[in-house]
């Protein structure tokens, strides 16, 4: 039997990732009741950071071998420039690995430069891994098609050296494009949606949808203040925030949240939790903070939105907890559609706020009489090549979907971004939804 010491480094990293993952499951299942709330919160977040880093270690070893070890036998290996290159690659990998720990130690009113640099390197790391893998696959396919009988020569060596150079150049170019794209204000996307049984007195009611702002290591008060100014300029009747407002505890990031107090939609501002609210393990304090800004959390509950023109005309606006609360066994929380829609009959229009598209699908299976569901979560994939994974993992990806004759689902691509301050193949959005009466 092969001992642990004899395993290759990649295999050791995989074993370490498995151990961390097992410890996460163990602490959730058996230690949840034995540890105090604060300790459990820190343990979970530390475990998640360690798990991500052990997985990344396998990729980092591949990056180092492709971009450094490949050139150690070349004539330039002893040069000063190559030494600088090794330092640059090592620093790049170290920053990418440290990004997950900034959630624990570097969150404030405005982002720290270190956090922005670390998450930028993480985004570039994902892109670089993709291109190294893709170009490596193309190289192997070429060798297979060309035949194994060909002798290795300088041409093969040149192709081997070309692969990491091309991957690095593509990564740098896309990283710059992604940073520039994410630095732009969110696009305002206006969408008209017919809502079955919406009273005629509420025709053209304007709802502004925000999602996935992710206040934390790379999004701060300045960004949020810009979003609030844009929302106020739209003069919505209702503003809704469908989860993932923050990645930090309420007390730590409270100064960054203050611009939300300027939202003044006449029919109210409403909020439902996303999965990241539960990762903070601070949902109750977030609810209290939002209430102080006159923002009403919909914790598996609903409100009647009454027409300004007729008190007898109204529709039901409901919100459910994010489904991640069930996975995390977060006490007192979890998606409860029956409770959320209590008192909402099919005689009136029903609009549901549910952070994840998977939750939207479940809701429609249970209550097909829901007329409109507003979600987020997917970010439109946020950056290439994650777009494909987000598309495959969600029943609704981004934009407007019609389900049946009288039901629509709208999925926001996110108003900001999570961690990585980049957008590739997606655009941040503030959605202006115009409700049409049939």
From TrEMBL:
Residues 205-380 form the Calcineurin-like phosphoesterase domain. The keyword Membrane applies. The keyword Transmembrane helix applies. This is TMPPE metallophosphoesterase. Keywords: Membrane, Transmembrane, Transmembrane helix. SUPFAM superfamilies: Metallo-dependent phosphatases. The gene is Tmppe. It comes from Nicator chloris. InterPro entries: Calcineurin-like_PHP, Metallo-depent_PP-like, Metallophosphoesterase_sf. It holds the Pfam family Metallophos. GO terms for molecular function: hydrolase activity. The chain crosses the membrane at residues 12-30, 42-64, 84-106, 112-135, 161-180. It comes from the Eukaryota.
